[in-house]
Fold these 2 entries.
Entry 1:
Amino acid sequence: MNKKSLLNLTNLEISEIMELINLAKKCEDGDFNNIYNNKIVANLFFEPSTRTQYSFETAELKLGIKPINFNQETSSIKKGESFYDTIKTFESFQTSAIIIRSNIDKYYEQLNGINIPIINAGDGVCDHPSQSLLDLYTIYKHFKTFNGIKIAIVGDIKHSRVAHTNIDIMNRLGMETYISGPEIFNDHTSKYIDFDQAITEMDVIMLLRIQHERHQFKEITNINEYHEKFGLDMKRVNKMKRNSIIMHPAPFNRGVEISDDVVECEKSKIFQQIENGVFIRMAILYKALEKEVKQW
Amino acid sequence: MNKKSLLNLTNLEISEIMELINLAKKCEDGDFNNIYNNKIVANLFFEPSTRTQYSFETAELKLGIKPINFNQETSSIKKGESFYDTIKTFESFQTSAIIIRSNIDKYYEQLNGINIPIINAGDGVCDHPSQSLLDLYTIYKHFKTFNGIKIAIVGDIKHSRVAHTNIDIMNRLGMETYISGPEIFNDHTSKYIDFDQAITEMDVIMLLRIQHERHQFKEITNINEYHEKFGLDMKRVNKMKRNSIIMHPAPFNRGVEISDDVVECEKSKIFQQIENGVFIRMAILYKALEKEVKQW
Amino acid sequence: MNKKSLLNLTNLEISEIMELINLAKKCEDGDFNNIYNNKIVANLFFEPSTRTQYSFETAELKLGIKPINFNQETSSIKKGESFYDTIKTFESFQTSAIIIRSNIDKYYEQLNGINIPIINAGDGVCDHPSQSLLDLYTIYKHFKTFNGIKIAIVGDIKHSRVAHTNIDIMNRLGMETYISGPEIFNDHTSKYIDFDQAITEMDVIMLLRIQHERHQFKEITNINEYHEKFGLDMKRVNKMKRNSIIMHPAPFNRGVEISDDVVECEKSKIFQQIENGVFIRMAILYKALEKEVKQW
């Protein structure tokens, strides 16, 4: 496994997180546009994705990197080729890095034989480091600090790779993290807080997507009930603290965890998160390819 | 909605049409190759397409634009993300423009919240402005004028977004427009002319694709009968006026509305239309991105 | 048909093969990086592919060519557009060459009306010239000659486009070719050799993928039996000649025609073949576009 791989945030030092955030700022300022001219990076998404997939591609294009977008539906996966052999093939093409999303938990444990950087774009229910980093970048841009910032993550914590990665890294960065939403989703990875209390006390309300198509969800509640109890509508937004913000990794369900008119309200950072996602992914790629002097 | 969007031709002045045609000539001459180096444009095709999709991509590449090609099958659309939120995501990536084809009539009425140029690559049964413009460019290249040029559009006028856009703009440009083909498809948007009379009198015979897989078509007629009555074969081609031309937006059905040997005959401009489509789409993109000074 | 098309190896002179091999070396050395800046090449894969598809794309990117990747699932093929008309459309876009893989034997016989170079990336059970050329390049890099090199191709010779192309060209280049594996697959296109005899006598053991999902295969044998009789495991590898090598066009079935631990063993050139595939495809594209002076 290449040392420049980004698999999760667990082994990243706080100083490394801050370096990525500072690099993202430089990326946003255009300092690194086209610096990696002529490098090739392969994007292998084995799960549906809009934001992560296309913002990695956008980040690559802005850095001057030439993307190759793998489509498993028209690949030799259809002839039974394995995950490892597929990744090894792209390594053999001498691509500079590989971006991978897979529904396999810790898929990268199968990839010890791969010697180029692997960037984890989401693995099963485990990690989604680039999402966490863009969340951090968004929070840092707004509050200029992490210290003492209070966040409640609301919704299906149990099945969210975003929530787990975020709670861990945010605690390490000195933020106060809480979880809220239906008790059934509470996995006790952080302190629980009542939703309406969170509304008035938090600096950040981070909503998660309710997978209301899931069987388990249908058993315990319904959409209207959820919206009533845990949905963020303008009535609740108006009770939020003055400088507080709303976040959501998206895709979101309008009318379920978030009201239609909240999505683009003043406090909402949802589309800024998407915008920031491009810059943080440029920063991640910058680090992964840094000092890679071999030219083709 | 960004003012530089191209949604239909209804609001375009004749002078603006002529400007696009002149720009297409410059594009064909290579004057604008690579001028938009480093800009990113997203192509979102929600309906199957070969010509429109890949000629927009070709046009982008020739202008130096970097395309991002959205594939709805591997996107968050699969998780229920809405059309608007998908488009808003690409706007958040700071792409310079978005090309959209959708089967939703006037889909762009849902996109008032989008602030970057939207280029309509076909919406439901309503409009297909870039197709009309390439038809106009093809006619103008051949006749050097629109004034008094007689065209008959033949086939399923009723369900054709090309026909409606063309009839309107061609009339405004001083052309004489007729419709022909089975009476059942006559929606009286222009004067009806008998097909064999059209053959001898028109400057342009524009055939439309017969969707012979449609249930309604099977009820009223069959393929052989259609070909007999309204199919363009060499016998009919030989009766056409000396300087007249044959057009078809494609895909076409060989042996239904057009004989095999007519497709690439001397009078046929079908593949030139496809070629011209690249240049007119370069012109459209040139206009959409013009004076956009923000660089990344 | 354009003279610069590469359809099969039958009509290539030995000198032309050697020229391609020498060009591949230059490509590997980076001599041709970005020389075809701004040219567009279309990749049309009508069959699943990982190696061939993405290594052609990688080769294009390295040469500076801008690829357009056709996806038949979202194309007008879905509306019934023909193979010829689809290819003709890409020619009309003025792409510099077209790469085609299709399950139709000798599909290129339908393409006489196409005037730009066609590069055959595999047609039905007939030919796969770029695969053969990368095999040759791999052999030549290792042995520095073809003369007298002994190769056994092992497996389903009958249904392999790789085997037939290879046997013919390797014989012409002075190699000694043998076929091995189950008698049922022996089509007598070369001398048959017992597998365990081949192991000890050959310079190259080239394994083919066993399509064990095929009905016919299930009838005659099973996976374990095949692996026992014709599978390459480390016990057999240890009996191979000192300077001998193992090849496989991939995808391979670990545990069927090849043991897990053989795939990346010292003698295995499997991933080098993939790496060499990029360089030989660069060489093929270099030749196809050479002296094409028309710029856009």
Entry 2:
Amino acid sequence: MLTPAQCERVEIVLVSPRNPLNIGAAARAMANFGFQHLSIVAPFATNWMEAKSAVGAPDLLRDARVYETLAEAVADCTLVLGTGSLDRRRPVQSIFDLPKAGEQIRSILKEPGAPGLASETWAQGKRQPRIALVFGSEKHGLTSDDLSWCHALIVIETCEAQPSMNLGQAVAVCLYEISRTPATPEPPSLEPARQPDSAQLDRLAELIEQTMEAVNYTTRGMRSANGAALRILLRRLMPKEADLRRIMGLFRRILWQLAHSSPPPKDQTVL
Amino acid sequence: MLTPAQCERVEIVLVSPRNPLNIGAAARAMANFGFQHLSIVAPFATNWMEAKSAVGAPDLLRDARVYETLAEAVADCTLVLGTGSLDRRRPVQSIFDLPKAGEQIRSILKEPGAPGLASETWAQGKRQPRIALVFGSEKHGLTSDDLSWCHALIVIETCEAQPSMNLGQAVAVCLYEISRTPATPEPPSLEPARQPDSAQLDRLAELIEQTMEAVNYTTRGMRSANGAALRILLRRLMPKEADLRRIMGLFRRILWQLAHSSPPPKDQTVL
């Protein structure tokens, strides 16, 4: 996740969104990932009012700025990134795929010396240089004219058969990527606590071996090989201490029950 | 992007989705990223019909399978991953953040020798071992019972102030992450060895429950709670298919032996 000060410096710009539900969905994704600043360019007036007044609309939707043109909306942004798919279009701008763009945006936001301002200052119009992410309308995406205000185009790689993403989903995916913590190379750490020690695993192994013997599951001649296999298995499964107690409880109970039953007829084949 | 054969092996499961628009949005995100197989568990009938018959609904929505229980929906999946946020919840399953989970899923899908089958074969019910991504209802997400069928929980890192994502957006973000081309080299993968599917694990659980009952290890009144605990335990341990055969062999043998012994005296305390 980005810090609030980093999120401060990112502005989401929706150009002529049509569907109030999509506007609401975009705002919700922003709230999910901690972004505050929404600008709407040339909205359809009634749809915009409907989105803004929807039950449960986040504050950032009510605080959104409305502009007549994209030029005004991104006027004080130092990096303007359009979003879209590449069907038909061959834009003149640089094209970044979203993972690469996310990497670059995160590293820009990490730069010291350009902290974000508090929301109050932003609301008064005194804004720091910032990054704008621009999303086109549901109908046709960003036009060539819109793109002419963009430094680069971010492309979300999608299927050729269905390249066009829903607006709210595209916003969610972009903000997820920007705010993601890059996966680190090391595998997920195994919880160090509550893992049984080797001796505890050996006690379980012994109990299981006793049970195997009690039900004639293994012959004596095979015991040592089976013992090693059992040790390996138990270590691979990595039961926790609590698991161990439960499993041992079950096997102790099985052994008790077998000891208190009459022996079955000999020389039965194993199922 | 993943290849069609890789996407073939991923199944999206929606548990009791309520809003037809969200179902449609989930299906659209699947189409965007090339995924075909949608399963719906216990849908609200009218909402489901509405989603399915919506104008422009992708074919995969019409081809979706409907199940009464999550157990049936994931029966032939070898890796079942729940999704959710961590507010209030402290699940017993392993927790992966989405970037990490995406990395691991991509590396599993890269394994050779387990190509996906064509859709036609899938539709006939002859399916390859596969990965399920399970999404809970809009209202409360996955329940603890739902999670007991999951090997691990994938968490999308969101803001504390607004942790809960819209269903369609959560699906989009997860599928984007799974199909993204990583910006950095992949770390080594999880072991590819053959994992049992969910139904096989359920059969082992059943056998263990029969044994517990046969040795009076659990009272009838506790059985349903123990069943969930046992499901969770088996999924956490992640036994391989070969392990499963050996463990089931032992429990079958124990049951046989007990059945062929005389009953022990009643009312003995459990060790």
